[in-house]
Amino acid sequence: MRRSSCAMGPTAQSACPWSTAAFRLEGLQVVLAKDGHHVILEKIEERNLVELVVNEEVVFHCNINDLEFGGDGDLDPLCAAARIAVLNAY
User: Fold this and answer.
1) According to its UniProt record, which protein family does this protein belong to (predicted)?
2) Which uninterrupted H or E stretch holds 88?
3) Structural domain boundaries enclosing 49
4) Most CB atoms closer than 10 Å: which of 14, 17, 24, 79?
5) Nearest CA to 9 among 25, 27, 29, 26?
6) pLDDT (average), residues 30-36
């Protein structure tokens, strides 16, 4: 199983900033898991930022608020772009 890290910052709109961020990442995690990746979530202090790290290199980043909330990620264009970035990193 391939390992990828997903660094996520708190969201500005929530009283529990990291719990809301985790829900926004569900689709991304599902999309990457379908390709056999094990995603490790890590907290960072940068607000609204998502970074995908493979082999200690940031291969994708976006604003967490641009990801679809929940779901399987299949229809989210950012999840598709993230998937391609991670696949290209290997």
Assistant:
1) Belongs to the UPF0728 family.
2) helix 77-89
3) 2-89
4) 79
5) 25
6) 92
